[in-house]
Design brief:
single chain, 222 residues, alpha+beta, Alpha-Beta Plaits, 10 strands, 16% strand
């Protein structure tokens, strides 16, 4: 189900979120060049803790809405898994481990369809509510207000994975067993690489300065 998106600021009433980062089709040569560029970016990727200013949000009456969300169109998805590869390369120093990609791809073996599963950046994040150490915070510095994990604080209990899994299949946070922490989508600090590199434009990102209402409790996959 594609989430319902609507701006919540009176200043932007009627405008709604705008579509950005729609990548035009490109050749195999261009695609390979972009992947190599992604590898170079991954080699110099900056850790979340070095970039993001965290806000302590648990206990606040109202969590600020995320201003961006990645949406997927499974009708356009070919199952190439470029999104997973680019995500891991950019965010995990080039490690080849799709299991820790911040976006996952599932195949419907009966219908033959592939479905990318990005994080919804929920209005009411179940992952945040489940975290016992307030490791899940809001990225204010990049302006995305995405819900992210401060890996310096995470204790690897995987309660965020369990919390998200109550409503979404598969859960969007992933557990990195090698490092003993959970990871999740942070919208690449405002420039989602999965969207930029998708060769079939199956992914797009919606932005709104007013915030986007999406994810739980508006959307549930269970």
């Amino acid at each position: 189900m594609e989430p319902n998106l609507r701006g919540t600021s009176p200043d932007e009433e009627g405008k709604g979120p705008r579509v950005v980062c729609l990548v035009p089709p490109f050749s195999r040569r261009t695609f390979l060049k972009r992947v190599m560029t992604g590898c170079l970016l991954g080699a110099g990727a900056v850790a979340v803790a070095d970039v993001v200013q965290f806000l302590t949000v648990p206990g606040r009456e109202r969590l600020p809405l995320g201003r961006g969300v990645v949406l997927a169109d499974k009708e356009l998805c070919s199952g190439c898994r470029v999104c997973e590869t680019v995500c891991v390369t950019f965010n995990s120093q080039g490690r080849s481990a799709p299991s820790i990609a911040r976006i996952s791809l599932e195949k419907d073996y009966l219908g033959g369809d592939y479905e990318p599963n990005p994080c919804f950046q929920c209005v009411k994040p179940l992952c945040l509510e489940a975290c016992p150490v307030a490791a899940i915070q809001v990225d204010e510095q990049s302006g995305s207000y995405s819900r992210i994990i401060d890996e310096r604080v995470c204790i690897g209990c995987q309660r965020c994975v369990e919390g998200c899994g109550r409503r979404f299949v598969p859960p969007r946070p992933r557990y990195d067993s090698e490092r003993g922490v959970s990871v999740k989508c942070h919208l690449c600090f405002g420039e989602p690489q999965c969207v930029a590199f998708c060769p079939y434009r199956a992914l797009r990102v919606e932005w709104s300065d007013a915030g986007v209402e999406t994810g739980y409790p508006i959307v549930s996959e269970r």
